[in-house]
Amino acid sequence: MGKDTVIKLKDVSVSYLQNRKGTHSVKDFILKASFISPFQKHRVLHNIDMEVKRGDSIGILGPNGTGKSTLLRTIAGIIKPDTGTVDVKVIISPLLTLGAGLELELSGYENMKISMALTGNYSKSTRAEMIEKVSDFAELTKEQLKMPVKMYSTGMLARLAFSSVMTAQPELLMIDEVLAVGDRGFQRKCKDRLHEILQNGATLLFISHSPDEVKEICKRGICINEGRKIYDGSSKKAADVYSKLF
Amino acid sequence: MRAKRRYIILFLIYKNLQLKYKHSVLGFFWSLLHPFLYLLIFLAIFSAAFPAIENYPLYVLSGLIFWIYFSNATSQLSIVFIKNAHLLKSFNISKLLYPLTELGSELVSFLLGLIPFMILMYFLGLKITINLLYIIPVILLFSIFTFSVGLILGSLNVFLRDVGILWNTINPALFYLSPIAYSFKIVPERFKFIVKYNPLYHFLELVRNVLYSGQSPDPHYVGRCLMITSVAGILAFIIYRKTRNGFISNL
Asked: Is A101 within 8 Å of B91 when comparing Cβ atoms?
């Protein structure tokens, strides 16, 4: 592993255990008599090789359900691959997925604290300051932050989740399609902050369905189709490859 | 990293407690009302039926609070991975932290509830002696057993939701199979084996050695409970290890 390499995937394959009959109950098990092996392996990612250097900004493009999120989860260590090795040398901040990591019954403030604790950005001395920064960035009012987040709109949820992670300077940031739900103003703000974070030396993995966004934010692009990496190179070329898929 | 882990654990416990009592006016007091109500019912119905049991209220209460702890904790643990699916999918922290903190918050509720109930037990005739301190290792051992049962249920429940439903159905049956409102002595000889095979019976005896009889725990039951806990613990560990990699794809 080279000096600047922060992530290295070698021949990584990932499978999901899939319930063969699509059932979740004992009754169906018995009726369909599938006691022998009720679960079937369903391969999601096939032999992925990938190397990421410090400061890379990589856009990941691909049709729905082709394993983009699974790829990020594998890198984050949330899913273990069947074969191959995953080497990650940096501290990973949580995946930014829609609604992920939010406890709907709790207030915005409480969610902020939980997310800070889980990402390791929590310390008593900086807590008040961090909370202020996060609420500023999210542009959510005190009243809104006191409400349980189940009353939030999708955009507000994304603002909250995004801000909790973006306010810190993460080493490796992984974004899974969250940018799309914010309004224009917030999207602009996030992109500016992303550039800032990147300039400070962070590494970015960015899933999107907008080739233009990928071209704008990322230098490098990876295209995935049916669990295989079909292109890895400049973000411009990747956007073309992606557009041709449809 | 250790400091961070401590925060994570504390926050998850805090989150569980918050969620539990968030939208209720009486909050924590509900958890006291539950055993208290049962106690009154048993006193009203059964105290005349079991005149042989000396100090029946204390007998019932000592068993009841431990039963409720077990029943609450296991039913919460059976859904712990399902409930935390969104966290499991976005944070790379040990999956074991979720059941551990779930038990932690149940234990906190239980211990807080124990204070008023100990006072009540004192008025019911509990003798305050040094032997009472034995309740601490008993609670610890019982918690490990409860955790093991809960972890087995929680792991399997991810794949088969019936496990959770089934457990909630079995729970009340288990209550009557355990000598909580009645004494083991009154069980007819030919049915005694059923109660004996119920692991909870041995724990209840242990609890009552301390809280009801005011003695030190009987080594016979200590041995039994240690054995039961070890078996449950090993089983839980194996099942959790076997299933944990499939959690994400089935949540």
From this structure: yes
